[in-house]
C-alpha cells in the first residue's frame, strides 16, 4: 500500500518555510504537482521549484499575502493559467512574532494571528472549494499546533489564531462533506527542522521529558501524515484534528 498522489496538484502556502518545504518535497515524491506559495523568500521558492521538477513533477511559484482575499483570488487565477485544477490545499503559512504574556503581548499580534490562521483558512476555502464541489473531490488541510491544546503561558495570540482556525475547519468539514471533500488539521509538536540540524539544536531534554515518546518529532514525520491525509487512503477521514506530537497532547473523547 503506497501513498499515491499521481496526477494531483497541491497548493502549499508558506511552502518555503521549515515545514512547508518538506511537505512540498514529500508530496512531490508521492507524485503530486506542487504549487509553491511564498511571501518573501523568492530564492528558496525557486530552489524548491527546481527540486520538485527534478522529481519529474510540474511546479510553479506564486507570491501572495495570504491575509488579503484579493491576493489569494489573484493567486488562483495565476495557478489556473498552468494547471487545470487544485486538488489539495494546505494552509501552512503563519505570521511569526515574539511570544509574550497576555498583558505584554502587543494588540497587533492578536490581529496578525487571526488574519494568518482564521482568515487565511476562510479565504482559501472561498477561493478553491467551489471548483472542488463541482468535481466532487478535494482535500483541505490546515496546519494547526499542539499549542491549541496546551494553552501554555506566552502562547495566547498563537493559540487564539489556531483555535479560531480549528472552529472554521470543523464547520467547513460538515458543510462540504457531502461533496466528498475532506477537511482536516495536522497539529505538529515542537518539530526538528532544517535549522535545527544546521545549528545542532535537535535535542531539548526539558521538552522531550514531557513527551511520551521522549523526543521531538521531525519535519519529515509531519510531512508523512500530511501526505497520507492528502491521499485516497484517508478518504473517510474528515473533521479531524490530528496531533503529530509523540503523545504530548491527546484529544479526549
Automatic annotation (TrEMBL):
GO MF terms, alphabetically ordered: oxidoreductase activity
Pfam family, one: adh_short_C2
Keyword flag Oxidoreductase: yes
Keywords, in A-Z order: Oxidoreductase
The keyword Oxidoreductase is annotated on this UniProt entry: yes
Superkingdom classification of source: Bacteria
InterPro entries noted in UniProt: NAD(P)-bd_dom_sf, Sc_DH/Rdtase_CS, SDR, SDR_fam
A GO biological process held by the record: monocarboxylic acid metabolic process
PROSITE patterns xref list: ADH_SHORT
Family: Belongs to the short-chain dehydrogenases/reductases (SDR) family.
Name the UniProt record assigns to this protein: Short-chain dehydrogenase
Organism: Paenibacillus glacialis
